[in-house]
Amino acid sequence: PVPKETPGEFVLVVDPAHGGDRTGSVGAAGIREKDWVLSLARAIQKAGSSLSPRMEVVLTREADYTLPVRERAAVAGRGRASAYLSLHAARMGREGKRAVNVYTQSYAGMIGGTAGKTVSALDFPLVGGVRKTTLWDFQQFSAIQESARFGEALKKSLSAAREVQEAALRQASLAELAGLTVPAAAVEFEFLGDALAEGVLK
């Protein structure tokens, strides 16, 4: 899907994880992650269109099929994405709380091949005795800062939801968010296995 050309529009790209032969987690009642997050994505899309005529919600996948990680991020790249949101679901933890984890990209995840490392300006190559950076590098690092603010706003909003008992904001090196130059976050709902939480979207 490619966002329509509408001046001044806020475009949120929502990525329901998995799909097709990639089922993801499965709840005690048989609810599959790929189906639950697709239902949630559709609900977000419906809510977004009713909030403002200037807001458009674009889904990376609109049905149950396999979509490679690169193609998911490409939806944001091809259009005029203002923000990117990846949706995941997992089984509830041992404490039995309906928890939500909001992840934003770490500095390590922004530079290819540096996953698991601490990244600084020293990671850029030396060219003629000068650290070489590009506009894309600056866009990436700017995106990290914007994503942190986006993630904090998501955490605050989700914490207020009655279905959520615990919310956390974390940084990680995530392939699905790598290379994006807009505010981006992945949200994991530890809802599977809880009858109330699994039925929220029904």
What general outline do the C-alpha atoms trace? globular
Q: How many runs of DSSP E, i.e. beta strands?
A: 8
Broad structural category = alpha/beta
Kindly report the spatial arrangement of strands forming the biggest sheet.
Answer: 2-1-3-8-4-7
The Cα radius of gyration reads 18 Å
The major β-sheet equals:
6 strands, mixed
Low-confidence stretches: 112-127
Number of alpha- plus pi-helical segments: 5
Which strand-content bin applies to the residues? 15-25%
Mean pLDDT across residues? 81
Give the helices and strands as they follow along the chain: EHEHEEHEEHEEH
End-to-end separation: 25 Å
Residue share in helix: 25-40%
Quick structural gist:
This protein is α/β, with parallel strands linked by helices.
Keywords:
202 residues, six-stranded mixed β-sheet, alpha/beta, two-stranded antiparallel sheet
